[in-house]
Design brief:
heterodimer; A: about 850 residues; alpha+beta; nine-stranded mixed sheet; 28 helices; 20 strands; B: about 230 residues; alpha/beta
Chain lengths: ~850, ~230
């Protein structure tokens, strides 16, 4: 029997290639979005971890202290710790070079040692400095990988120029090492200098970035770790290298979680399409089903036929989706790498894309399970078809029940529960629990769709009657009388719109909040930065360069800022060391809470700190509380004297006096300079003058206040670029759903359209009617989407932003995009319905109304 | 002089499928205005094909069809559709009402398709429903009506333009005998009141008996054409 049913299915596919294509495309797009996101993230995280592990060599522990580094003196304490076999100090600098766009990771290592920690095999060491004495005695010595040398035709004795905080530095190649192990990271763009030379060249003073530690054979690593923590003090973390990678992985978790949710939404829309498609299939085959039932096929057999079809289509769609997802990943990889570098300051070479069988299997399974779930209701409807009733006339088939009260109540309850969750959830509730609020709202709205469609029909009927006459009335009635069929498409449009509009609203809210924050806390006329990224580990201004800018005649006030991070509750919190008095002078309104005069006085004396509101929210801190900041020289404990909205870090931001920072971190570098100009000074003229003053010493990026705001907006746009791409996928999937629905509508109403033609409806009136039905569906979809977008925006701004980053955002709803969506959705509907409308107009009347 | 409302001249209709089927084979027929003609014959004799060709839903393979003097072959699809809408009323065995519209809206539909305003069309439809004895059921949809009520709505729709020609395909085929009789009575009344010509395809002798002319078809040919007094 199975083979006989399979034959029927295959014949049906042959007859309905368009529907088959659309269904497969629906599954494929959903699976592609899911697989692409997972693969991209895996490659990115793999690359980050791989880089750290390779850089760590054979180290079993690493001591590090955020971006600022710590004193070289710590090496003594480490080496004298029982159980430590080898301890190598390391500096890391990512420097721009004269080798095209290539940025070079320059490691400062103790080249006088045998570097065995970084060589995997003692008999064939990868990292060898042939003449270490000469190498270390000449400060400009650098060794590069053979891969880099080959790429640029560099040989021993050649010179390269690198950017440093005090200007370009010329280095001489005095050694090549193979591009494996430590030389394999960053696509071979790695160089090694002697650590003292590196410190001197890059203005690191006595500071190092980390100590790589190998424990003695048989030593208890945990015990050694505990002893090192005790000896080094709270400002220096001692962790296993793999956990350090985990910490970086956590930094991109937010981005990954966001994109995963988006891919699930794309998959949900795909489920709508499959549901629609199988509904068509059942409607197109109701006579076949009746015949099969009448010749003895059991209900179970009918259901099995449809579900088997779903499995096969799911498998085909999943395979195509995995292939498409791999292609999307390849395209997105560079983009994601740039986002992590720009936003998180985590630099890595563009990761190598790998086919992950685990994710492929998961995506394949998800595609099939989604198909089966979506086909379940149509399959059940097909199985429960009464053979006798199936062969009765069309008008004896009763319309679908629209107002199932239980369903309405459940839908309303879900929406209400989601909104109440958003409104009243206290801090600290698991973020995955909170993310269910959005799903509750959206699923609730899906359950309410039949009611929305009914109301939409009632509203649209007189309007369409007045505007388009009988065709308009029939179009609206056709839509409203088949709520199940219509709901699938209205749902797809609703989800697609919700996706687009609520995300745009979130982005807009974030931009507005950042704009507002920059106006308050960065009211400077000019902003000068040492890097085009928000956060950079390697590019800084030297104190001298910063001071020379600050002392220019046109400058009224200058605030020199060092931007780094510190660990707090296992999170990397941004630490901004300002000249606090100047900070308040340039931005007098920067505080949201706290007395500005007192805060200025205390912070500038190093007797208080200001924190961002998201740090206060996340760590449950309030004004007057004491904040402990870990530094390489021990804990700094200061009262919180002010708070403000600040969006640099999702984990929070601490502002403290730069002099205090220098004292505890031994770090004189400067990353940003905020400048207020004297009255009457032209900003652009000053920009040019400052650029000329800095030129030749190092790269600098100079913005006016407005330009910096634009730059910040650009960073947000880049961050959300993947979201925009996924939105396009969601809308494409919704469009496919609409074509599908119109095909169903025409297929279901073949006889009805025949009657319409038989009693005098012209072909063009049939086209008009089908197009109007699509327009009506799209308008109801738009209304449902607008409402759901509003609710979901409420969720995103109140829960998602707060849970993910603790950000308090103003509620901004993107009405302009909503307005733009009206014509876009209707035009999309018209285009989608054109082919079905044309098919409808070409119906043979006599055939359609059932004459044999 | 008897004005001819339907004229078929040597009409042939051949369906070329897997097997070649001659549905009509040289049919010639003239129906004077006001005459009622019943068309009888076994299944496959060509009755429905004849009706399709007369109303312009189908075109003959050869021969000529004139409706009220207009040659269907010379008309565009839109013109044939307009002719069907305004000159020909059609009644089907399966009623063929629009399931999404209520009784009044179904009857008003041909008027609305001509561009008449909703209110005016609804008024005329309501009046026509009253005329066919269905004044209280106009706001109901087809799935809320009995078979007889549906057929009355279909007849009201067919008559809404006061067409000179009514085509009925087994109008009582889906009804019980009592309801069928009521519908036949209604059709007689319509004829008496409007003087409408009718071509009535049926297997039912009772239905055929309301017509003054009877044509029998067999294998696509007219095998008998008799005039008699209607019952």
């Amino acid at each position: 029997m199975i083979s006989a049913l399979a034959m029927i299915v295959l014949r049906d596919w042959g007859c309905h290639k368009l529907r088959l294509g659309l269904t497969t495309a629906g599954i494929a797009l959903g699976v592609a979005a899911f697989f692409a996101i997972q693969t991209t993230n895996e490659a990115l995280v793999g690359s980050l971890n791989g880089t750290i592990e390779k850089l760590a060599g054979k180290a079993t522990l690493q001591a590090a202290a955020g971006n600022a580094g710590f004193s070289f003196d710590a090496i003594k304490a480490v080496r004298s710790t029982p159980g430590v076999k080898i301890a190598e100090p390391v500096t890391e600098t990512l420097a721009a070079t004269t080798l095209g766009e290539t940025r070079l990771l320059i490691l400062g290592l103790d080249t006088a040692s045998d570097l065995q920690l970084y060589n995997t095999a003692a008999e064939r060491p990868e990292l060898v400095i042939k003449n270490p004495l000469v190498f270390s005695s000449r400060k400009d010595s650098v060794a590069i990988t053979t891969k880099l040398a080959d790429r640029f035709g560099i040989k021993d004795g050649d010179r390269i120029t690198v950017e440093t905080s005090s200007g370009p530095a010329v280095l001489t190649i005095r050694g090549l090492f193979t591009a494996s192990g430590i030389g394999d990271v960053y696509d071979g763009n790695v160089a090694v200098m002697d650590i003292y030379s590196a410190q001197a060249t890059f203005g690191r003073g006595n500071r190092i970035d980390r100590i790589d530690i190998s424990t003695a054979d048989g030593a208890d690593v945990d015990a050694v770790q505990a002893e090192l923590v005790a000896r080094l003090g709270p400002g220096i973390d001692v962790v296993r290298p793999d956990l350090r990678g985990k910490s970086l992985e956590n930094s991109v978790t937010t981005m990954h979680a966001g994109f995963t949710i988006l891919s699930i939404v794309a998959l949900m829309i795909g489920v709508f399409i499959i549901f629609n498609s199988f509904t068509i299939s059942v409607n197109q085959r109701w006579k076949d089903i009746a015949i099969l039932r009448s010749i003895g096929v059991e209900r179970r057999g009918i259901k099995l036929m449809f579900l088997s079809e779903a499995v096969i289509l799911g498998a085909i769609g999943s395979c195509l989706g995995i292939a498409a997802g791999l292609a999307i990943s390849m395209a997105a990889m560079g983009l994601v790498t740039r986002i992590t570098a720009t936003v998180y300051g985590i630099a890595s070479a563009t990761p190598e894309l790998r086919f992950e069988p685990g994710y492929a299997a998961a995506a394949f399974a998800i595609g099939i399970v989604s198909s089966v779930i979506a086909a379940w209701v149509p399959a059940r409807a097909a199985a429960s078809l009464d053979p006798a009733a199936a062969l009765r006339n069309i008008e004896t088939r009763r319309s679908e029940p629209r107002m199932n009260r239980l369903r309405l109540a459940a839908g309303a309850a879900l929406v209400a529960a989601g909104l109440l969750g958003v409104k009243f959830t206290p801090p600290g509730i698991d973020s995955y629990v909170q993310s269910t609020y959005s799903f509750m709202i959206q699923f609730g709205m899906i359950m309410l769709l039949p009611a929305i469609i009914t109301v939409g029909g009632l509203v649209l009927r007189p309007v369409m009657d007045r505007l388009f006459g009988a065709e308009g009335v029939i179009a609206v009635e056709t839509m409203a009388r088949s709520p199940r069929r219509t709901a699938a498409t209205v749902g797809a449009i609703m989800i697609g719109l919700t996706f687009a509009i609520s995300n745009a609203s979130l982005i807009q809210s974030l931009k507005m909040a950042i704009d507002h924050s920059l106006d308050k806390a960065l009211a400077a006329d000019i902003v000068i930065t040492s890097s085009e990224q928000l956060s950079s580990r390697s590019n800084h201004f030297s104190e001298a360069v910063a001071a020379s800018i600050a002392s220019m005649d046109e400058v009224e006030a200058a605030d020199q800022i060092r931007i780094t991070t510190t660990r707090m509750n296992d999170r990397e919190v941004a630490l901004l060391a300002h000249d606090m008095s100047e900070f308040f002078r340039i931005s007098p309104d920067l505080l949201d809470s706290g007395d500005p005069a007192r805060a200025r006085e205390l912070t500038s004396r190093g007797e208080g700190v200001i924190i961002s509101n998201n740090l206060a929210f996340r760590s449950n801190l309030k004004l007057g509380d004491s904040l402990t900041i870990r530094s390489p020289k021990g804990d700094v404990e200061l009262p919180i004297v002010g708070m403000l909205d600040y969006y640099r870090s999702e984990h929070g931001t601490i502002f403290l006096e730069r002099a205090l920072y220098r004292q505890y971190w031994d770090d004189p570098d400067v990353d940003y300079i905020f400048i207020d100009l004297k009255p009457g000074v032209d900003r652009q003229a000053f920009k040019a003058k400052a650029a000329a003053a800095i030129a030749g010493t190092r790269r600098a990026f100079i913005y006016t206040h407005e330009e910096y705001k634009q730059f910040a907006g650009g960073v947000i746009d880049r961050f959300f670029l993947l979201m925009y791409m996924q939105t396009i996928i969601a809308i494409a999937v919704a469009a496919i759903g609409l074509v599908n629905t119109m095909l169903i509508s025409v297929a279901e109403r073949k006889r009805e359209l025949g009657i319409f033609r038989a009693i005098g409806g012209l072909r063009r009136q049939v086209v008009k009617m089908v197009l109007l039905e699509a327009a009506a569906i799209s308008m109801v979809g738009f209304a449902a989407g607008a409402l759901t977008s509003l609710l979901n925006t409420y969720f995103l701004i109140n829960t998602a932003a707060k849970v993910v980053a603790g950000f308090r955002l103003p509620f901004h709803f993107s009405f302009w995009l909503l307005g733009l969506a009206i014509p876009a959705v209707i035009v999309m509907a018209m285009i989608s319905a054109w082919l079905p409308a044309r098919n409808a107009a070409r119906l043979e009347v006599a055939d359609a109304i059932g004459y044999e | 002089m008897n004005e001819i409302i339907v004229s078929l001249e040597n009409v042939c209709k051949i369906f070329d499928g897997a097997a070649r089927v001659t549905a009509l084979d040289g049919v010639g027929l003239e129906v004077p205005r006001g005459q009622r003609v019943s068309v009888m014959g076994p299944s496959g004799s060509g009755k429905s094909t004849l009706l399709n060709i007369v109303c312009g839903l189908d075109v003959p393979t050869s021969g000529r069809v004139l409706i009220n003097g207009s040659d269907l072959a010379a008309m565009s699809d839109d013109d044939r559709t307009r002719l069907r809408r305004e000159q020909i009323g059609m009644i089907f065995q399966t009623f063929n009402l629009m399931p999404t519209l209520n009784g009044v809206e179904n009857v008003a539909l041909p008027l609305r398709l001509c561009g008449m305003s909703g209110n005016e069309a609804a008024d005329r439809a309501a009046a026509m429903l009253e005329r066919v004895g269905l004044s209280g059921r106009g706001s109901h949809r087809p799935d809320e009506m009995s078979g007889g009520e549906r057929q009355r709505v279909a007849i009201a729709r067919a008559l809404i333009f006061d067409p000179p020609l009514l085509l009925a395909d087994e109008p009582t085929g889906n009804l019980d005998s009592a309801t069928g009789d009521e519908i036949l009575k209604l059709l007689e009344d319509v004829h008496n009141e409007f003087g409408t010509s009718m071509i009535l395809v049926t297997h039912n002798e009772n239905a055929a008996a309301i017509c003054e002319r009877r044509i029998d078809l067999l294998d696509g040919r007219i095998v008998s054409d008799t005039l008699r007094s209607p019952k």
